[in-house]
Amino acid sequence: MFGSMREDVRSILDHDPAARSVLEVLLCYSGLHALWFHRCNHWLWKHNLRLLARWLSQVARLLTAIEIHPGAQIGRRLFIDHGMGVVIGETSVIGDDVTLYQGVTLGGTGKEKGKRHPTLGNGVVIGAGARVLGNIRVGDNSRVGAGSVVLRDVPDNSTIVGVPGHVVLRNGKPVVITDPKQIRDPLSAALSAVATQVMDLRERVRKLEGGEAPEAAASAELKAISDELQSIIEIDYQI
Is the pLDDT of residue 50 over 50? Predict the structure, then answer.
C-alpha cells in the first residue's frame, strides 16, 4: 500500500511542473486525495459494503470536488490535475499512467444496465472539460482534446477532437476525412459542401478563361460566378 502511495506522489512530481515538493503534493493535490479515498472505497465495494462505500465516496466528493464511483476500476499512477468537476462512473475502467484534467466526465449515455461507462487504455490523456460517454474504449496512448465529446471507440495512438469527436491524428500522421459519410457534425458537413462548390467554380472559371466564348458572355458568366461565391462566403452556419 505504501509503495503504491509513493508511486502516486512520484507520478505527480514527474507530470506537473508546478509540484515543488512531496509535502506540497500531499497537502494540496485534491486529485491525489480523491484517488486514495477511492482505493479505500473500492475495497469496501468489492467486499459488499456498498452502502458505506457509496456514502464515503460522497464524503470524498464533498472534500475534493471529484466524484469517483467506488465501483470504478482504476490502474496505477492515475493523475487527476486540478480535478474540479471530474466525474468517473461506476463501470469505468482506467488503465495505468492516465491523466485527467478538470471537468472530465467518464459517463453513460442512458439507463442501460451492465457495462455502460468508458474504458481508457494505458497512457491516455483526457483534456479539460471533455466528455467520454458510453461503453466505448479509448486506445492506449491516445489523447482527447479539451471540450471534446467522444461517443465512439478511439484507436491506439490517436488524437481526437470536436463535438462529436473525430480522429485528427493517428500514429503521428494527420487523418483527413474524405468520405462524406464519415462527417457527422454540421460544421464539417457545411465546410465540405463549400469546398466542393469552390472547386466546381474554379473549374468553370478555368474553362472560361481558356475557351473561345464571346467576351460579353464570358463577362456575364464570371459575374454570376462571383455572385455565387459571395453568397457562399456570407452563409451563416447555425451549429
Answer: yes
Cell representation of residue 133: 460517454
Q: What is the distance between the alpha carbons of residues 196 and 141, in angstroms, rounded to a whole number?
A: 35
Q: Name 33's Cβ contacts closer than 8 Å, sequence gap at least 6.
A: 60, 63, 64
Q: Which residues contact 41 (CB under 8 A, 6 or more apart)?
A: 53, 54, 56, 57, 60, 68, 70
What mean pLDDT comes out for the span 142-168? 89
Q: Structural domain boundaries of the chain?
A: 2-174, 180-233
Confidence of residue 165 (pLDDT cuts 50, 70, 90): confident
Consecutive H or E run containing 67? strand 67-68
Domain 2-174 grouped into CATH 2.60.40.1120: no
Separation of alpha carbons 115 and 79, rounded Å: 24
- pLDDT at 199 (0 to 100): 79
Single-letter residue type at 42: H
